[in-house]
Amino acid sequence: MPRPGFQEAHWDSSTNPEAYDENGNLKPGYEITNQGPTVVIGGPADTFNKGIGGTPVAHDNGRVITNGAAIDPSSGMMMGAGGAAYVPKPVYYGGYQEGARDAVQQYRDAADAAGSRDIHADTRAADMTRMQQLAALDQIRQSSLGNGPSVAQAQTNYGLQGSLLASQAAMASGRGGNGAGSYLAGVGAAGAAGNVIGQGQLARGNELNAYRDLYASGGGAMRGADMQQHQYDVNNLINQRGINDKAQLGYEGMAGGVYSDALQANMKNENRYAGQSNYVQGGDFRQAQADAARRYDQEVTGIQAAATAAGTAAQVGSKFMDKKKKGGDDT
Amino acid sequence: MSSFSNVSETAYHVDPAAYMYGGTANGADLEKKRYDQMGQAAQNRGLYLGDWRSDQTRQVQGTGLAGLQAAARGAPGAAQAEAARNTMMAMRGQQALAQSARGAAGIAGANYNAQRNSTGIQNTAAAQGAIANAQEQASAQNAYFNALGQARGQDMGQAQFDVDAQQRNMGQNDAAGLAYAGLGRGVTQAQLGASGAYQDMGVSQSQFTNDQTLQASLEQQKRDADLQNRIIGGAMQVGTAAAVLL
Q: Residue A50 pairs with which residues in a beta bridge?
């Protein structure tokens, strides 16, 4: 019978669903006193009763192996000399039989998800700029090979043009004389032109050297940037693994903790059942001892009574015989 | 047994709600689900990385790079345009001088000089323009390459910052998600312990009551047996006395 203020609930929630909430937990105000059918003592473990990892355990919800204690089939209570003993209900992680397994699965899913994450750097803009830079560097390389713009060449052209005009002017000014002035002017102009060309070649050489230097240093700068990008990528990967490992370990630790908690609860369940069984057997033993002592006393009393009756009968018989010998009543 | 009923009636009836997290049968389950949801929300928090300012200036930068690229490939530059404008002005000056001449011979001489000077100006301007243009192109090649390097460095920096930020965000999300998961697990642990305590209490109360009942029962049985023995003894004494009287 349930305690005052409580209503009886059947151990099988399908029998009276009004006593259970949507999660299968007992509603407040209800109590299970009948623990349901029992498993035969010494019989096989209930195949529906699975612990973590599918290991069969000795009891299911409402189904109890009592290790020798007598079971009242009508009430499901352990019966001993002291009356009905409370049959503890199994305590499960999360409140239901598969609670630990579900919780472990939940944490393991989270661990798996955390372990496989990856963040890619979006380097599309940098990669595109790199391709443009490569093209620009190739243009510098073309200039270093003499295929690009030349300030030296333009300056030489300008110098030669000035020299030509100066020569023409000098030759014109020498006209009308003996021609010697004109000749000397022409010689001077040729020398000036040669000077311009020579200086132009020197400038051109310096110019090409400058392009080559720019090309080499530009290549070095690009290599440095490429190395930097590679280091970024590697560091990002290492950091990502670290982050993933940390989270994965955290969730796996929780899954392991659930196992540990469930293991402790299962052991306590078993201890509770074993303790109750021992308790009931202890009560039976005390009752049996008391019965034996009482039987002994009764036997002693019986023997005493028999002896006393025999003595009394003998005494009565003796007195009867004495009266008969004295000629008394022959009845 | 009636004398023992009072004992059991005075036993304390514990309140099962006291063993329930939150005071209700599904309190622990609800609270754990709430923490799970908060943990998932924390785990999945995103990070908006958009930056309209730098996106806008990157476009400006791209336009500047395109101008430098054109200059590096020899497009007419500022020096060439300046030379053309100056040449035009110089030739107009020569024309004005020629128009200021008087007399037939003077006008003819002035026109001749103006035409010759204009040719000279054009040639000089074209040559100097070519020099300036070559200088501009060479300088643009260098500037274009360096500016691309700067832009690439910024693009790399932006991408790296984004990754760092996302990883930091992920780490923080993980910490929060794990913390919430720990809270949820703590709720379940607490309920597990309370449920075990409730069962232990049931066992303890049951044993306590049964011990009393058993003790009382045994004593009663003993008293009954003693009474029975005494009755038998009394009967025997009566029988013996009767025998003596006979």
A: A56
**pTM score above 0.80:** no
Alpha helices for chain A (secondary structure H): 99-115, 124-144, 151-173, 180-325
Report which of B15, B28, B25 is spatially closest to residue B190, judged by C-alpha positions. Answer: B28
- For residue B140, how far is the Cα from the chain centroid? 44
Half-sphere exposure for B152 (CA within 13 Å, toward CB): 23
- ipTM at complex level: 0.76
Phi, psi of B130 (to 5 degrees): -65, -40
Are B229 and A301 an interchain contact pair (Cβ–Cβ within 8 Å)?
Answer: yes
CA distance B159 to chain A (A): 6
Q: How close A107 gets to chain B, by Cα (Å)?
A: 8
| Distance in angstroms (rounded) separating the CA atoms of residues B234 and A305 | 10
Phi, psi of A184 (to 5 degrees): -65, -35
Chain B residues whose beta carbon lies within 8 Å of the beta carbon of residue A218: 145, 149
Tell me the pLDDT of chain A (331 aa) as tens digits.
677 777 888 767 778 888 888 777 778 888 776 654 433 333 333 333 322 223 333 333 333 333 334 444 444 455 554 456 788 889 999 999 999 999 999 999 999 999 999 998 999 999 999 999 999 999 999 999 999 888 888 888 888 887 777 777 777 766 655 567 677 777 777 787 888 888 888 999 999 999 999 999 999 999 999 999 999 999 999 999 999 999 999 999 999 999 999 999 999 999 999 998 898 888 889 989 998 998 898 888 889 888 888 888 888 888 888 888 887 555 5
* Chain A contact set for B34 (CB, 8 A): none
Interface with chain B: mutation pick from A1, A64, A105, A139, highest number of B CBs within 10 Å: A139
β partners of residue A78: A71, A85
